[in-house]
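Two proteins, back to back. First:
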Amino acid sequence: MAELQAFLEIDSQIETHLVLSTTTKYKDALDIVRKFSVCSPQKFLFTKVDEASNVGTIINLVCQFPTTLSYITNGQNVPDDIELADPQKLANLILRD
């Protein structure tokens, strides 16, 4: 972790995104975010939104940490399945739950 932190300190203009799977249990995702907090991630990117039974982890983490949501992925066809996080789409996913 120290190596990664040192690498990120080389250039303060580097925008860091913490990538998490939407299928990760909230408690585990919370542990991951805390461990990577030393790297000061600025944004979250959530994968496997199409495979998750709910999106509560996304909402909880975005509300709990001073980090914005940048992108989500819906499928295996990268980069075609990466999309900007859209509040309306996220609201629809929440209501689906």
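And the second protein:
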Amino acid sequence: MESAFLSPGQGDVEGRAGRSLYESDFYRWIQHTSTALKAKDFDQVDWDNLIEEIESMGRGERKELKSRLIVLIEHLLKLLYWDAEKVWSGRGWRSTVIEQRRQIQLTLEDSPSLRSALLEMCPDAYQQAREDVLLKSQLSEAAIPSEPPYAFSDLLNPRYLPGQSQPED
């Protein structure tokens, strides 16, 4: 009977049941690929899957950035327009705004080229956030403008929080 797990040293190129190592043990594939690249043993690199994974990482970074942007905008809109709930939830919304800004800034520090992508994402992110707030709050469509009520520069400005007086620079 075949073991359900590969023992150390097995499956350097192929995993269980003739499947590639990439398909049968992703973590081991990463370790194998990393070792081969460090050793400049390029014949041992699974190039097709490596390229696919690198492209996927880039898509993942963009997706995370957009997701954080939607959450940030959603909470800014809640602070601006959902007055009935603000009394109970406003502090949490502000905390979410602060944390999303922090995480977006960290992502942009790690990948500065995503800054231009952030600007491209804003119109769609605003519409998605607006739809989410309208659904959650049951406010009328007219209650939240179809265009952002703030400048793009306010999105990542740590001193900008709706409903608070803004210190002058």
